[in-house]
Specification:
The chain is 17% helix and 37% strand. By secondary structure, it is of the alpha+beta class. Strands 14, 18, 20, 21, 22, 24 and 25 form a 7-stranded mixed sheet that branches. It has a 6-stranded mixed sheet with strand order 4-12-11-6-9-8, with no helix packed on it. Strands 3-5-10-7 form a 4-stranded antiparallel sheet, with no helix packed on it. Strand 8 and strand 9 form a beta hairpin.
Length: 502
């Protein structure tokens, strides 16, 4: 509809003002009808229907991954003009962008003062379906509410019947949870403890009674290191690491002395008390079972499992004593740790000294395995909502204790050993020559070549001479090879004899 109105110019200074004709209308109006695909009455009866869904079943506090929401709008009626989809962005949620199907080229979305508005087309044709994927960031969730809701609406400039307008709005509500994947792994430095045995060292004299016993170095030292890794996504407010460290035998003999205990990160440790055998109820089976259980994952991103060190098998020589909290009395060390954010690490180092009994050292029965057990548990999270069960992780550290292998010491060869070796070699050489002579090795078999005249031809003499030279050369090479073989055999025997008895 278009309207045109005219009037007089009332500006001053006009010499001869015009006069309006009172017999003519001052306003002229004209109307043009726009043809719509809305039936015979040219009135569009739209029926917009909206649904919203997500692949997520819940949202974890602190997750760094974007949240994808699928919105589907369908027009089950006639053409909808100026169709629009609107979603109010909740607090602590940020709009990042949208994605549409290639055929929905007319769709465009903008963020207008905390509300996402998407134009669906003008008009949105009848029986048309448009899918929109909104990408949202939920990394700012504070964990104060146990759920979050997204309200999405679809409308147009057409007036929709009240009987079909109930599905113009959809609500997606997802629970909010707090959880942190934790891992505990341990390592022994050094990987094994080598105990040096007492050895004897001779003085200047050759008398064996003049040997002096050198004692081994006192108290071999080793360190058990426990590393706690939080891969998130939620932040850990307070946690606790308990280490069960064997220090004393059941009979009361102390074989380990604890040294310094240090913590890298926010936390502190203290030695709590000595435990009895009945107070330790963690078995290696439980450690392996919990280590093999996968923790919950966030959005399809797997998390590394906690690494544990398994016990070494018994040595082939015999039984290895396993000194853990089931066979020895353990000291309980409790470490209280502070805030652990996503991908943060805390390290606990326990230095200790091995106390050896002199009787054990003399009998060389010090082969044993020192086994400590660590239990890491999350106590609380800095959120209003708390997980149903707190994360828990186990790890064991094994430090084998082995005696030092004896090393062969170099000694000077006695003079009589050298003389005996030379005489034995000459004797073997003579025996070899006699055996070769007895077997006819040195005998010459001449070829009898005589003609009917009773004498040898000159050419035959030359051939016999060459044959004799070749024969001698071959026998000489065989003789030298036999002598070298006998010498090698004799040298090997003498060396074995010397290593065995000297």
């Amino acid at each position: 509809e278009v309207a045109v109105t005219h009037s007089l110019d009332d500006r001053p200074g006009v010499v001869l003002p015009p006069i309006l004709d009172h017999h003519v209308r001052h306003t002229v109006t004209d109307q043009t009808n726009i043809l719509k695909d809305c039936g015979k009455d040219n009135i569009c009866d739209t029926d917009l229907r909206i649904t919203v869904s997500s692949t997520r079943k819940d949202i974890l506090v602190g997750t760094p991954y974007d949240f994808i929401m699928n919105i589907e709008v369908r027009n089950a009626g006639e053409g909808a003009y100026e169709a629009m989809m609107t979603m109010e962005v909740p607090d602590e949620v940020d709009y990042i962008g949208f994605h549409k199907k290639s055929k929905d080229a007319q769709v465009s979305c903008t963020n207008d003062l905390g509300a996402v508005k998407c134009e669906l087309g003008n008009p949105m044709e009848a029986n048309e379906t448009i899918s929109i994927y909104l990408r949202l960031s939920v990394s700012r969730l504070s964990g104060m509410n146990d759920s979050i809701s997204f309200v999405v609406q679809a409308n147009s400039s057409n007036v929709e019947d009240q009987r079909t307008s109930f599905d113009n709005e959809a609500v997606l509500t997802l629970p909010v949870r707090a959880y942190a994947n934790v891992g505990l792994r341990g390592v022994s430095i050094p990987e094994q403890v080598i105990v040096k045995m007492p050895r004897k060292q001779k003085t200047n004299g050759n008398d064996e009674d003049a040997a002096v016993t050198i004692p081994p170095p006192p108290r071999p030292q080793f360190t058990h290191i426990y590393e706690i890794l939080s891969t998130g996504p939620s932040t850990i407010g307070k946690s606790e690491l308990k280490v069960y460290f064997p220090v004393m035998s059941v009979e009361g003999q102390r074989f380990i002395t604890l040294g310094n205990i240090t913590v890298e990160g926010d936390g502190q440790c203290q030695v709590t008390r000595m435990l009895g055998l009945s107070e330790f109820n963690i078995t290696s089976v439980q450690v392996e079972h919990l280590s093999a259980t996968a923790p919950p994952v966030d959005d399809g991103h797997p998390v590394q499992l906690a690494h544990t060190r398994k016990r070494r098998q018994a040595s082939k020589a015999g039984f290895r004593e396993q000194l853990d909290c089931t066979a020895a009395r353990c000291m309980l060390i409790t470490c209280t740790l502070g805030t652990l954010k996503r991908n943060s690490i805390a390290i606990v180092r326990l230095s200790s000294f091995l106390t050896l009994d002199n009787h054990d050292v003399q009998r060389k029965i010090i082969e044993r395995d020192i086994v400590s057990t660590g239990v890491f548990e999350v106590l609380e999270m800095p959120y209003h909502i708390q997980p149903v069960s707190m994360p828990l992780s186990y790890a064991q550290i094994v430090t084998p204790v082995n005696p030092e292998k004896p090393t062969a010491t170099k000694k000077s060869v006695q003079t009589w050993v050298v003389v005996l070796s030379v005489m034995s070699g000459l004797l073997l050489l003579i025996l070899a020559v006699l055996l070769l002579w007895k077997a006819g090795f040195f005998k010459r078999k001449y070829k009898q070549l005589m003609d009917y005249s009773g004498y040898l031809d000159d050419q035959d003499d030359d051939d016999d001479e060459n044959e004799f030279i070749a024969f001698c050369k071959e026998r000489w090479e065989q003789l030298v090879s036999g002598i070298m073989s006998c010498w090698d055999w004799m040298d090997t025997r003498i060396t074995n004899f010397r290593d065995r008895y000297y």
